[in-house]
Amino acid sequence: MGIISMIVVGFIVGLLARAIMPGEQKLGIIMTIILGIVGSLVAGYLGGALGWYAPGEGAGWIGSIVGAIIVLFIYGLIAKKR
């Protein structure tokens, strides 16, 4: 059940990040899910490094969306160079 919930949350977070980020992102459904999951991991890592989250505590919805926006911004920079 944990994997399914991670996929659903990743999809929702990825969709929200793509909606907030200006510009057009050409990502499919799988890449949107991966964007949301990686964004949550980035937010958890950065929040833990800055002391916002306790060890083992996951990032919240807002933190996950901000993390996904960061990942989407970096992806846009990399894809633009190609």
Describe the structure.
This protein has 82 residues and is mainly α. The chain has one domain (2-81). The chain has helices spanning 2-20, 29-49, 61-81. Helix 1 (2-20) packs across helix 3 and helix 2 crosses helix 3 (61-81). The model has no long low-confidence stretch (mean pLDDT 85).
What percent of residues adopt helix (DSSP H or I)? over 70%
What percentage of the residues does DSSP assign to strands (E)? under 5%
Total individual domains: 1
User: What is the assembly state of the chains in this entry?
Assistant: single chain
Task: Note poorly predicted spans.
Answer: none
Q: What would you call the shape?
A: globular
Task: Give the helix/strand class.
Answer: mainly alpha
Radius of gyration: 13 Å
Largest sheet: none
The number of helical elements comes to 3
By DSSP, the count of extended strands is 0
Distance between the termini: 38 Å
Query: What's the order of the H and E elements?
Result: HHH
Average per-residue pLDDT, rounded, comes to: 85
